[in-house]
Amino acid sequence: MKYLRFIRNGHVGLAAAAEGEEFFGRFLTDIPEFGDLSDALLAGDEAVASLCECLLQGEPVAFEDVDHLPPLISPSKIVCIGLNYRDHTNETGSVQSDYPTIFSRFASSLIGHRQPILRPRVSRNLDYEGEIVIVIGKGGRAIPKVSALDHVFGYSLFNDASLRDYQTRTPQWTIGKNFDGTGSFGPYIVTADELPAGAKGLQLQTLLNGEIVQESSTDEMIFDVATLIETISEVMTLSPGDLIVSGTPAGVGVAHTPPLWMKPGDTCIVTADGLGRLTNPIADE
């Protein structure tokens, strides 16, 4: 299944689509017994199944004719992974760690498909990072790697747009990763059963103004999906609806000479097999 969150005529809605089928959905005001997708995830598999059945009995939702929202609006945690592709580690001149590099994003930075990524007034060093997102469906602490994929609800796309000058002002990257309007997430969530286990073998690309600037396979991730879930859950309880943004491959703008910063008027697209195309124009704040 695919789950889409949208707004039309001022009303927020959800839509679902079976594999290869069109979207059907309802406004949230018409499904008060289920709430939002995040509420259903917290309530468990039966609630998600009931919500899906309800959505599929709704009205057709034309993907191109609605305004898109992040598929989940307020995840309790957005855990991001840095330096998870060796070629990206090499291009940044960093030392590859034998433990994942972990930082946080916050929900206040999230935007959806076709919404503008905002270049803030205080910086011009706006970079792109195309990534795969892991959406947690079943929570837990100290999740063993052997069963980690059972905790995945689905996958989506992310553009971890970063202000590089702010990112390097401190040893921690959080400040450069959380400007409002820089965390693009979507266009929808694809449930894990529609993709290879652990999202293996997906071709991931980022395009800036139609030119491919990043291209790799998820097979090249140093820490795979199951390892990330096991490692993160050693420290914290993962909850349904939490996001793990799994890292970006080589080709980021800061590694170009001169740097290739995103600017107003540009369009950035992140795409991967089975996950659609996450498209965002760039605009000034």
UniProtKB/TrEMBL annotation:
Keyword Ion transport: no
InterPro entries the UniProt entry points to: FAH, Fumarylacetoacetase-like_C, Fumarylacetoacetase_C_sf
Gene3D superfamilies (UniProt xref): Fumarylacetoacetase-like, C-terminal domain
Cofactor(s) in the UniProt record: Mg(2+)
Top-rank lineage group of the source organism: Bacteria
GO biological process, one term: carboxylic acid metabolic process
UniProt KW keywords: Hydrolase, Metal-binding
Stretches assigned to the Fumarylacetoacetase-like C-terminal domain: 77-282
MF (Gene Ontology): hydrolase activity; isomerase activity; metal ion binding
UniProt key word Metal-binding: yes
Protein family: Belongs to the FAH family.
Name of the protein in question: Fumarylacetoacetate hydrolase family protein
Organism this protein belongs to: Paraburkholderia panacisoli
Lineage, broadest ranks: Bacteria, Pseudomonadati, Pseudomonadota, Betaproteobacteria, Burkholderiales
